[in-house]
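ARCHIVE CARD
Drawer: 12
Card no.: 0347
Subject: one protein chain, sequence and derived structure
Cross-reference: see card 0346
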Amino acid sequence: MVETSEPSGGTRFLLYPQAPHTPGYDKPELVWISDPQGSILAGPANDRMYVVAPNAPKAPYQYPYLPPYSGPAAPRVDPSPDGHFDHVDPSDPAFPGVHVFGCVARVLDIWESYLGHRLSWHFTDTYERLEIIPLIDWDNAQSGYGMLEFGFERNPDGSRHPYALNFDVIAHEIGHSILFFEIGLPPTDIPPGPDLHAYHEVVADFCSLTGMLHFDTAMDRLLRRGSGNLLAMNELNRVAELADERQIRIAGNARKMSDVGQEVHDRSRPFTGGIFDTIVQTYHDIAVSEGLVDLPPGSIPDARGMGADLEERYARAFRADYEHKHFQLKAALAEARDHVARAMARSWARLDNESLTYANAAYALCEALQEAGEGGIADTLLESLAWREILTSYDIHALGRDRSRAAIWF
């Protein structure tokens, strides 16, 4: 344990904002996590999780075979003499385990800041800590009761990329765990609410997207490649060069409920798209209100239907003097991200996992925005979710009549 008389700034890790085989993301970013310097032990390990790296063949966990792993394992990774883990080089075979640990800690830090309280695991009645298996010979990855384990993503050309280096995958899985802790596990004696599993996918993808937008590398890349113009990202064929960012590609869609089936990942797309619309429109509104772009306030549905002339007008407005306003636009995007993420976190206290519906989840999110004084953002969210057929006039009436306060944004 490193002793220091000065306040600790946390512990350093090297993390990839996107999978390192993604163009432009081949170098990791230096990230601080909140665990005090010197508090993370060899493994890495802390009071919530630990890494164990099998060095013999291991089958994926499957009930009733669950943690802890008791087979032969590689040596635990020691922190540097000053208590950090950024000394582990990405070429080191031990790096995937360090990377997963750092990513999980990073996602927990982000969402604890939005929630305002410490998160715990939904499996603490059985396991005190999460077991992380960073690499096994398997073409998949999984999050289960008390564990995370990762194999490889196999590409058509036969190459393989470790899921343990894919922040999107890691953050998505931890997103499920966060929601389990906040609203509870699905009921076992009655069928879950009709949208519960799809909403889980919405939250997991949103945790991944929000996590990515906390990396300077990702924020700078997104803004610079479009000169700050994110308005066309609802249909990414208009901004084809942005297709490298997986979570942006998933979130930026124009799906309505009538366009999707019952499979939970497919069914999650309209709600995820509606939340992303809201972030983009809020970013645009902040940029306009602060005089960063010379445009009238617009709307995401209008942006979806922009013709070539209007599209060029928006692009021209954002390009104008962009290099002198990059950091102000970056701050505007961070502000929009945080408004929506804080409301999402606060909405969970209003949800019941036994009867959760999309309409209830949408109302809870609007209500959280309204209580935070963000009625304009609630308007934007409502408009987008109504366009996507998630909320109907009947939903608005039915959900509002039993509330103690009128939903004035409706």
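Annotation on reverse: Strands lie at 11-15, 29-33, 49-51, 130-133, 141-144, 147-150, 152-154, 160-162. Confidence is low (pLDDT under 50) at residues 1-5, 234-242, 401-410.
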